[in-house]
From TrEMBL:
Protein name: MFS transporter
Spans traversing the lipid bilayer: 63-85, 97-120, 126-148, 155-177, 183-205, 226-251, 263-284, 291-309, 315-334, 355-373, 379-398
InterPro entries per UniProt: MFS, MFS_dom, MFS_Efflux_Transporters, MFS_trans_sf
Main location: membrane
Organism: Streptomyces eurythermus
Length: 416
């Protein structure tokens, strides 16, 4: 009874302040589940070609490096398009935006599966990339706005767990299915899950003006913190993916693991990422700042440890687990930070964070290639670790006293 009374009072207060009231409890749960499934699907689609490059290249009569552009082109599109798309569509109700981008995912998946040429497949992939670029900006405020502020960190964590499952389950399952039945079937299946998400959201998510939604504005707007998190996210992503891009070469040439063992260790890396996200999700509501700083520090230790002691198998496994355990939590905690410190609309802040992170992924891959040719795999991880240490220094510097912008916007509250 008390819980129901609190919910009623909260809904009344929101209505009085011009904020959209939350839908029924089971509607909220169903929409969150649909958003989690969409996050899993889009993250799977992003990396889907990785394990199927050779079959795709052979089928469409292109080189394997050309097939690799299906992944790199996707990532660059997400990095470049996130902020412009979020800005252009900032006044469109979120229900319409989400159903539109999920429709784009469904169309992209069907066209990809039926593609008779490389150009058609690449165009379909870029359509899905545009959908993903907008999804991570819109999905966060919609999901957390369905629930009370004191549990928003756990909602972000649930979405991040779903996204992380793509690397642990989605991509490996798609690779297995593609090698068993051909690459076209795994490219088509996201259309099914995308359609389920589309119907659920279209039916159950209320339509409202974006600026009136409960999480449209940060709980404690802070322009300085916003810039700090963006810079740290870019540096940590650059460092992480400088190493991760060449992790197979490192485990083979530096650690001396057999090819079969390397495959197992990649699964261990993915499992560590999922475990790290799950553990960090529990702490996000109580320690939003410390969660991000701790994840960056753990990533620094893991990468520098691989660079310094990765030639010892036991040490390599230990530091690989630390690196994997921090990779997912860094992005998750940065997304959560945007909901606390965005100086304007949270969707635009989340788009900026996603764009910076994806730009860091592309920069890291390029930096890793450059360092690899001059200093080998060990040098790549040392360079990546130093960049991640720089991200930690930026975050720690951001804790120093400084002038903070006063809270504002319809959902303003005291900074935490």
């Amino acid at each position: 009874m008390n819980g129901a009374m609190r919910e009623a009072r909260r809904a009344g207060a929101e209505a009085a302040h011009g904020v959209t009231a939350r839908p029924a409890a089971w509607h909220r749960t169903a929409v969150l589940a649909a958003l989690m499934l969409a996050a899993f699907t889009l993250n799977t689609v992003e990396s889907l070609p990785v394990g199927l490059l050779e079959p795709v290249a052979a089928s469409l009569r292109v080189s394997v490096p050309a097939a690799g552009l299906l992944v790199t082109g996707y990532g660059l599109t997400v990095a470049v398009a996130s902020v412009p798309l979020a800005h252009v569509l900032r006044a469109v109700p979120r229900r319409h935006v989400l159903t539109g981008l999920l429709a784009a995912l469904v169309v992209s998946s069907v066209v990809s599966a039926l593609a008779g040429s490389y150009g058609v497949l690449l165009a379909a992939r870029l359509l899905a990339a545009l959908a993903q670029a907008l999804f991570w900006a819109v999905m966060g405020p919609v999901a957390v706005g369905l629930f009370a502020p004191e549990v928003r960190g756990r909602v972000v964590g649930a979405l991040s767990v779903a996204g992380s499952l793509a690397l642990v389950l989605g991509v490996p399952a798609a690779t297995w299915l593609g090698r068993l039945s051909g690459w076209r079937l795994p490219f088509a299946l996201p259309a099914v899950t995308g359609l389920v998400c589309l119907v659920t959201i279209a039916a159950l998510l209320p339509s409202s003006r974006p600026e009136e939604e409960p999480a449209a504005y940060a709980t404690g707007p802070d322009a300085r913190r916003f810039g700090t998190v963006l810079a740290a996210g870019f540096l940590s992503a650059t460092g992480a993916f400088a190493g991760y891009t060449y992790i197979v070469a490192f485990l083979d040439r530096v650690s001396g693991f057999a090819p079969g063992t390397v495959s197992v260790l990649l699964s261990v890396f993915g499992a560590a990422c999922l475990a790290g996200v799950s553990v960090t999700a529990v702490a996000l509501d109580r320690f939003p700042r410390a969660a991000l700083t701790a994840a960056v520090i753990v990533q620094t230790v893991g990468m520098l440890g691989l660079g310094a002691a990765g030639d010892r198998p036991a040490a390599a496994v230990l530091f690989l687990v630390l690196t994997g355990g921090a990779l997912g939590p860094v992005f998750m905690a940065a997304q959560n930070a945007m909901l606390h410190c965005a100086p304007g609309r949270t969707d635009l802040a989340l788009a900026a964070n996603s764009g910076c992170y994806n730009a860091g992924i592309a920069a890291g891959a390029a930096l890793g290639a450059l360092v690899l040719s001059h200093a080998g795999p060990r040098g790549v991880f040392l360079a990546g670790g130093l960049l991640t240490a720089g991200a930690g220094a930026v975050l720690l510097g951001g804790h120093l006293p400084g002038r903070r912008r006063r809270p504002g916007g319809p959902a303003g509250a005291a900074p935490r």
